[in-house]
Batch of 2 targets.
Target 1
Amino acid sequence: MATWRLSRLQQRILHWLAVEHQRTKGMIVSSHEDLIKALREDKSNISRSLRTLEGRGWIMIGRSPGGKAQHVTLTAEGLQRAAEITKKL
């Protein structure tokens, strides 16, 4: 299995999603806009990091018919990775 390096932003995204996942008991309520507001980062940087995490299979991005990201959820593997990151933080 490959060892992936994560940027600080990707670590923060996974941590935030894990906290939201726990808070909402796994319900899909985390929107792309909520993530941008919570992390106070540039939208393009967050979008790029989300695509990377999605490519690794750690998150799923729900998209509108127009292709815009509507909600973001952790996969089982992503939840495991987020737990590892949370321990380190």
Target 2
Amino acid sequence: MNLDDTQRRAVADWIAGGQKLSEIQKRLADELGVHLTYMEVRLLVDDLRLTPKDIEPSKPVELSGKQAAVGTPAAAEELEPDEEDREAPPGADLSPPGAGGVSVKVDKVTRPGALVSGNVTFSDGHSAIWYLDQLGRLGLAPKQQGYKPSPPDLQSFQTELQAELAKLGF
């Protein structure tokens, strides 16, 4: 990683031009004859106190806005910070139990043996514990033994669960 001043300026110009580290790695090899691993390029850029311009960080912001629109109205989403949404799921506020809605909550402390877990209240007022295990299997344990939610409730549950997990980055 011993580059002379002209080579360092070239790397700085490439970073300023918005090139990714992999592109810089390729240009170093092709144009300057300096063969570095990707990690060495990262360290070089860090040593030069340069910050690559990543286009990708703006995409998660756009995705969270689109995914939030699935679970709640866009106006309500803009007024509430993400942390408040995690504590009080939008489905719980919009449709209370027994009023035709399904509310899904994600546990702050995950149950043992699960990647993520939580509670669901179906439209008929019955509730259950849900969890996703390490193999990605969805489990549902109703509090009332033998209870089976209706197919529309199951579909609403899966939609709400997907929206909640998307907010958390799953």
